[in-house]
From TrEMBL:
Ranges for domain Histidine kinase: 256-453
Statement: the UniProt record of this protein carries the keyword Membrane: yes
Recorded superkingdom: Bacteria
Designated name of the protein: Histidine kinase domain-containing protein
Classification via Pfam families: 7TMR-DISM_7TM, HATPase_c, HisKA_3
Organism the protein comes from: Dyadobacter psychrotolerans
SUPFAM superfamilies attached to this UniProt entry: ATPase domain of HSP90 chaperone/DNA topoisomerase II/histidine kinase
Keywords from the UniProt entry: Kinase, Membrane, Transferase, Transmembrane, Transmembrane helix, Two-component regulatory system
An example Gene Ontology CC term for this record: membrane
Residues passing through the membrane, by range: 12-30, 37-54, 74-91, 103-124, 136-154, 161-184, 196-220
């Protein structure tokens, strides 16, 4: 075997060098990541190197008993404490298995009690047999705790667990091999020319394999953490983009409000101001027709109030339900056709519909609906108008049909500004607009608007 040809001092130097390099790697990782697991990991490796050095000396003594060297026991106990802490941080035991975390805390307290007991035995100069028995008892208790925790850890779904268990297995196998060969002095005679005759060779080799597994486990965990950070960043970017879209939608709504206030209300308010001065002059006897002017002022004021109500309604969040839109659509149709020689036929849902129209859609949808009704009054010369509303496939389906004169309409052909405006407003709420008309056969206009489930179903 290859290791049999290597002198023990050279192999120990090689193994110690490997462990020192791994400890330095852990320290460099700590400077980059600033996580406690790295410096604790480096200190654990250092404790094992020191333990192997003193164990090598103790194994050469006559009548050797484990646990009689106070320095070895203290450093070894410190290594166990760091080992437990390393497992807690690597596998996230407190979050994944609180019961195992409590067991590990108890094990930590037991190790601390053992260190105090060893100090007392050292200061009182107790016999080696008592020291060894004390050492063995506490180690058996720690082993029992490990037997409780390890099976529970195996059930956790963590990528680093496999590396941790494999590393721990290598360490245990190395220690068991070293313990076994102590009782076969004829074969394991500690020949300096054969590294395999020394117990520490197997212990240190087991620790090297353990450290390699732990390093791989930390790399896997770091990779997982990086992927989680990337996912979190992607979600944050997606949320920021969504917020930007909402902000853009709000800005468009503000621009629409500003334009509507200027175009629809500004001129009427200015005319009210001008006519009020005219009425004053007329009432002072300078001119005639004061009553007609006041009537015009009143009519214009009512128009302003009606338009202001429409703007407020379209913006109020409480009016986002399909049922509320249906009520407003009925009210508008009745008011518009009240003094017209046109018979109105409505087919709206008889019950409340548990769907809502997004706020950024509702205003443009209502303006499209209102503009179509005005076009019917102005141009259709119809005797009957049929308006129906229903919900199909997450769309509000609004159809308006008249039996008027109709007109020549061809899809994908140039059309007037009115139709272009209707199509643009429909596109603004991601809707669908269709129109069918022929001379003498009336007109059918269909508008579809996306809706979302109501608050009770979200």
């Amino acid at each position: 075997m290859f290791l049999q040809t290597i002198p023990y001092p050279q192999l120990r130097l090689f193994f110690d060098g490997m462990l020192c390099m791994m400890a330095l790697y852990a320290l460099f990782s700590f400077t980059q990541h600033r996580r406690a697991i790295y410096w604790q990991y480096a200190l654990y490796i250092l404790c094992m190197i020191i333990t192997f050095y003193w164990d090598d000396i103790d194994y050469g003594k006559a009548n050797y008993l484990p646990g009689t060297n106070f320095k070895v026991v203290i450093v070894e106990s410190l290594a166990f404490l760091l080992y437990i802490r390393f497992a807690v941080l690597l596998i996230e035991i407190p979050r994944l298995d609180p019961f195992s975390n409590r067991v590990l805390r108890i094990m930590t307290i037991i190790i601390a009690i053992e260190m105090v007991a060893d100090l007392v035995l050292y200061l009182t100069d107790a016999s080696n047999l008592i020291k060894s028995n004390n050492y063995i008892i506490f180690r058996c208790v720690i082993a029992f705790g490990a037997l409780i925790v390890v099976p529970r850890i195996l059930k956790l779904r963590q990528a680093a667990i496999g590396y941790f268990i494999a590393g721990s297995l290598f360490f245990v196998l190395g220690c068991l091999t070293a313990l076994t060969i102590n009782f076969i002095p004829a074969v394991f005679d500690r020949n300096p020319g054969n590294a395999l005759t020394f117990p520490v060779t197997f212990m240190e080799f087991g620790v090297i394999l353990e450290v390699l597994c732990f390093t791989l486990g930390m790399s896997v965990k770091n990779r997982k953490n990086e992927l989680e950070k990337i996912d979190a960043q992607d979600q944050l970017i997606e949320q920021l983009l969504e917020n930007e879209k909402k902000q853009s939608a709000l800005m468009r709504i503000r621009d629409d409000i500003s334009r509507d206030l200027h175009d629809e209300l500004g001129a009427d308010l200015s005319s009210i101001s001008v006519m009020s001065y005219a009425a004053i002059r007329q009432m002072n006897g300078q001119e005639s027709g004061a009553t007609d002017t006041v009537n015009i002022i009143g009519e214009t004021s009512r128009k302003v109030i009606a338009r202001m109500r429409e703007i407020i309604w379209s913006l109020h969040s409480a009016h986002d339900s399909v049922t509320n839109f249906s009520f407003r659509a009925k009210e508008t149709a009745y008011a518009l056709f009240e003094h017209q020689p046109i018979e109105l036929h409505l087919d709206f849902p008889p019950e409340e519909v548990d769907s809502r129209i997004p706020a950024e859609y509702r205003r443009n949808l209502f303006l499209v609906y209102k503009e179509i009704l005005h076009n019917i009054v102005r141009h259709s010369q119809a005797q009957n108008v049929y308006i129906s509303l229903c919900i199909e496939n997450d769309y509000l389906d609004l159809t308006m049909k008249d039996d008027g004169t109709g007109f020549v309409y061809r899809e994908n052909k140039s059309s007037g500004n009115g139709l272009m405006n209707l199509k643009q407003r429909t596109s603004a709420f991601s809707g669908k607009f269709s129109l069918e008309s022929e001379p003498g056969k009336g007109t059918i206009v269909n508008v579809k608007c996306p809706v979302t489930p109501g608050s009770d179903t979200i």
